[in-house]
Amino acid sequence: MATFSPSPAPRRSSRLRGDARPNSPPRRMRVANSTSRLSTPNRNADGTSVASLMDVDDGRSSVGSERGLAKTGVEHIFAKSDQVMVSFHANLPLEVTQILRNADFYRDVYSGEIDTLTGFALIASMKTCFVWQHAMAVKGIPTCYIFTCPYDFNQTSPPFHSLVPWGSSREPGLILISTAGEIRLWDSVGIGLAGGDRYSTTYLELISEDIVTGLKRVDTQTYVVSTSSGSLYKLVLTSTGGKYHLTSHPFSKPSKSLSLSRLIPFLSSSSTTTTHLVSEPGNISAISLGHQTIDGGRDIWVLINTRVQRWVMKLDGWEELIQDEDVADLIRNAVRKTFGNSIEKVDAKLDLELVDLVVDRYNLVEVGMMAMDVTGIRRIYSLVQLSLSGDSFKVDNVRSVPYQSTSSSGAPMHPQIQSLPQGQLVSIQFGDAVVLCARASDYQERLELKSATDRTLGVGIMQSESVVLVLTAGIMMKVNVDIDNVLTFEPENGRAHLIKSVMTQAILYGSLPNNPLHFSFPPEVDEESLMRAAEQLSDSILHSDPELVRGNQDLSSQLKVRKERLAWLIQFINENTALIKMSQQCRQKLATNAEKLDASFDLWAIHNNLLATGPTHSVLNDAVYAYMNEHEANYHEDFMRAFFKFHLNDLGLVMEQIPDVCLNAAQQTGRNIGDLLPEANRILLTVLTAAFKHRDHNVITYGLDLPMINPWTSTSSIIDGIIALFDTTTGISTVVTKDSELHHQVPELAEVLFACISQRVERLAIDAKGGAVGIERELHELQRKFDLLRPEVLETLRGRGHAQAAFTLAEKYQDFSSLAALCHKETIYPPEDNPNFDRIKGYIERFKDQFTNALYRWYIQHGEIRTMFSQDEAYSAYMDKFFERNPTTSISWLHDLGKKRHREAAEALLIEAQQTVNLEVKHLELSIGKLANLAYLRKTEGTADDGLYDAFHDALDVVSVHKALLEEFTAVVANMRGRRSLDTQVDILIQEKASLLSEKPELTNIFKNLVKDLLQGKSLSIEDTVDVLTLKDNFDSVGDYATALHLLARCNLPEARKHAAFRTVWRRIYLHDDWSAIQKTTGVGDAELTQRFRETALYTTFLDILSQPDQDEPEGFETDPDVALVVPTIEEIASRWPGIPQDQVERIHDDYNCECDKLGEFELEEAYPRVRELAEYELSIRD
């Protein structure tokens, strides 16, 4: 098996020839810097842990106090799985402990060895070697034997070492050999107690620039030394005069004079036909012992650069090289075939190095190799099993080693391989870890040191049992291997179980204060197995699995342990950067379990305090009992503790029942609800507050994407329950004192209620956006419920003396409407007298336009315009933004006038006037708007007039028409005797002013309603105004027909409706006069007939509309009698009076047809052009 002492790193022969110097140390010791390819993974030396960021209780960890869990008999267990158990084996001598405690392993080089044959161990530095009996150290602090090492001033590494096993009757001897070839022999380590000065010295006859690279014990008397030039030396221990000394000679062929084949010819039959191999120079990095040959010799296997050599040590004292093969290409091809694209394809970049070898009883050669992966950053390690096929090697299999290193890894260490008895398991020693790899299964284990100041110094294999001893800078550990479980390891289920085992060990043993091991996942951990294992382990802790949580009747202590177990679990996952491999569902599952344990810990604390008061009734007791009874788990004598131990996964279900249990208990027992409410509120507040606190504090630790996918704290039942408790509590709190618990619970209930609802709204919004079925309706209802509930709850808080809590909640949830309302519950004007004056200013500075938008909206809704415009001028910009986003022309014009923005004020007033119903207000708005526009035109000298002036002129004309009509109608009303109702007044007006409407009942009703609106001071639309102008008699106001045409010409109406309105006006113009009587010409002269024409409404209208020939009037402005016969369609009538019943539409249509029929009775083919001709003539005379 491989040597326990460190061997040098493989080196290229070209580098040796170019750099080696006489008496120079091995090249492996020249890579003791952070960039060595042989360096070990860098571990974080910072003591800060992920758990310190979590919301856990202060104080000494109870995990560390549970050392009883880590003991089996007297063994302190550091790690335990189905395959291995790592425990404390022995302490180091005080002298060694003191030396290594302050050692810098990056600067100071140490080597070590555990000799299981003698029961001794040693550690060597550059100048001193410490030896002690490790088997004795199990019982106490061992005796330390100290020796001075052979040393050369050019030396940069400790000497190579080996103990000499004399047997159980005496202490072993010690051999130390420096890299320069000086050998010292102590025939007993006991000499070290007296200073260790009595030793014998021998020197190897090294060639120039050659240095020692290894020392291997073959048996008690025989040792093999390797060098950097490829030479092997045999050391033989002999005794002369009772004193022991060493002799040495290089491996060599037999001399002819001493060869047995010369004396016994038949022995040379094979050799006479065999060509002797000659070893080429090269660095020897490893020596391994093979089997004894048939003739009693011994095979020696050597790794020299990338060549594997096999030597035979003959009984007659000479050595023969029987095999020498370069396996580099063979291994490269096998490794690439095994690992595919994960490693380099180019040989130079692959940088293959063979680091050690071991040979089993079947002559299977296990070669350790390292190579660069495809990233060019990490070096990966593998085991390659070679077997002989004739005179050459073949690769049986390639297995990855769960270890990687980079250029920034820790203190360097040349990997060393050893084989357990029977060769079923291989151990590989790295600087900060020991790896176990099975040969017959896929089992792998990595024992990694925790501290960056610690390192492995030796590994020993117990030959009689499956035990591995590991020597570190602090202690010695014993690794018991269950070979049966190793051999039956199944990769399909075993990997997930192995990952779970690693996490379990991290939880159980990682917190032990003296545990030297660091638990970590193997490289390329499987994501699915990781998540499944983490969830199973978390659930097991939540359910108090006895393998993870020790039984304890003290529930507070037991809950604390479980909390810490889950804290260690997520800490371990984070320390191994495995969280990124977990899905969001898995992370939230782990976080939810931790939340429930945290909440349960606090819940049990308040219940524990309640039990101390000797209560006669408990709401929590009733709720838990109902749950346990429903789930057929009431067989526990102490069902309450049983729930907290085994059923915390359903904590949310119990919380949902608390409100009903409380209210039902009051009804069933006749107790005052006020006596039960404090506990019920306390339960929900404790659980939910603890859960929310844990979630907020650990969102980074668990990598949560909030809101939670399925939040157990925000179910519909819990929300409804909190609302019920809040309503009941606020109903009772009006009669309780302000010092009572109920009074102080009101704001806490409101805070928890808002948190639950908001989280559920956020979750539903995300689900709805993702296309979840049936979510939109629930989201809309819950959002609407929250919008209605929030101001109600906040006002309740204010009314119950919790104003500050109301403000705080409104701020947290940015309910600016409620904030604005809360700020104006007392004095509003003047603003300086408002007790919240400074608060309002603070909110404006803090929330800016988010708050001012709600504030101005509140002012407008509550008619506090004066308060709105009393604000500091510094905030006027917020008002500009508000009116820009929320056009409110009824108010914004005031702000514009104040800012001398006359154009904007005029536009706002025009828009507002068009929407204003009150005639006087409309008149005022138009008048102010016209003045503002005139001010703007004066400022711009009229260059920017784009029609706004004409719009105000036309709108004021409409107001003038309204006032003229109103004056006409009020003159009739004024002549009425006594007080008359409005309807009576209208009826009389129709009799006197619309006598011709009697044949058109539906138009009469419309006229009545329009006149009524006028008398009430309301403004009419253009179409309504036209109807009033044309439906009345107009005996004394025949010019109103032309006014109606002008109003229609200037208004904006759909083309079809405008054309229909023009036809209707002209139809009524024609119907105003009795054309049958006018056109009776018997006995009538031309002058009289002409006078009749001039007295018609048609003539008057023509005089008006023809007097402005240059104006571009719309189509229909002048309509002949034939076109006027076309009445509006049913659709046009429905569009004109939207919302009226269909039968009313039809009746209006009938009235239009009545007008058409009457007009059709007149013959106006000759009269129409004659009247128009007379009007044109009259206008020409005037001109």
TrEMBL record:
Keywords tagged on the record: mRNA transport, Nucleus, Protein transport, Translocation, Transport
Bias (Polar residues): 32-51
Q: Where in the cell is it found?
A: Nucleus envelope
> Which InterPro entries is this protein grouped with?
Nucleoporin_Nup133/Nup155_C, Nucleoporin_Nup133/Nup155_N, Nup133-like, WD40/YVTN_repeat-like_dom_sf
**Region of interest (Disordered), residue spans:** 1-66
Annotated Pfam families: Nucleoporin_C, Nucleoporin_N
> Which domain of life does the protein's organism represent?
Eukaryota
**Does the UniProt entry include the keyword Lipoprotein?**
no
Occurrences of domain Nucleoporin Nup133/Nup155-like C-terminal (ranges)? 809-1163
Q: Which part of the chain is the Nucleoporin Nup133/Nup155-like N-terminal domain?
A: 80-438
Q: Which family does it belong to?
A: Belongs to the nucleoporin Nup133 family.
Concerning PANTHER family, the annotation shows:
NUCLEAR PORE COMPLEX PROTEIN NUP133
- What is the official name of this protein in its record? Nucleoporin
What species was this sequence derived from?
Answer: Lentinula lateritia
